[in-house]
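Dear colleague,

Following up on yesterday's call, I've attached the two folding results inline so they're easy to grep. Please treat them as preliminary; we haven't cross-checked anything against experimental data yet. The first protein's sequence and structure tokens come first.
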Amino acid sequence: MMVVALAGCGAGSDVSRTLGAICETSADCDGRCLPPSTDYPAGFCTVVCNASSECPDAATCVDDEGGACLFDCVDDASCAFLGTGWRCKERDVRGVAGGKAMVCHGD
């Protein structure tokens, strides 16, 4: 059952230089690197966005960092494929007044 939950919420195979790969600088990514911090353990490759339609499948555009795509999740186990320090947290959806989404984010 855990495998099914992960497959629907950003399975490890979805990690790429576009979304989710570990990074230190944007040269490590196809787009932008959110450098290592408590918010993005080990760094996180992402897409700069203004709306979720600009994000890869299984990701939502949140207000963090001026607009960043983060993997959708349902619980902390959904984020385990990203490694230590990742949790499922509620964030504001960019461009949607009052919109909230559950996404993988650091502690």
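Below is the second protein, in the same order (sequence, then structure):
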Amino acid sequence: MIASLATTALTRFLDIGGTGFAYRRFGIPAGTLLVFTQHFMGNLDNFDPAISDALAAGREIILFDNAGVGRSTGTAPHTIAGMAADAASFIDGLGLRSVDILGHSMGGEIAQLIALDRPGLVRRLVLVGTGPRGGDAIARQAPEVARLFTRRDELGEDMWPPIMFSPSKESQAAGRGPPRTRRARGSRGCS
């Protein structure tokens, strides 16, 4: 099994106003840091190490659990605006004045709001599989896909290939990856 920086980096904690944010910081400290914001039901163990490790070869990466998620304490906000405010507080707490943000799915909505609210903080924004708040296509998922979001505990990792990859045999196989990649991803628990 190949060790991943995303799963073997030390998990640290940062207290901001009584909320303890869990995070991992790894990679080459050069240039602007890249902060990942996570998808619905995801935590810092759910980022794909094939992506974060590859990017860490040329820059420093920060993966974190937002307030009330995973190993972070506090209460998870009920709105994207609340999640964005907490994420910006975490970034500020690290003393960072400028970051790049990679937002995945709901994390992309969070990243967009941070960029709108704090344009001086966000240098570049990378959106992956996301859309704007209220995006029509987001609400019109196929029934067989929407149903998967309610079966997380039952399906575990098998939840993601039908949601993130096309139904073809080749695409589904790519979504599952080789067995060693799946084991290297670590815990998939969510809060």
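For the second protein, one point worth flagging: The radius of gyration is 16 Å.

Best wishes,
A.L.
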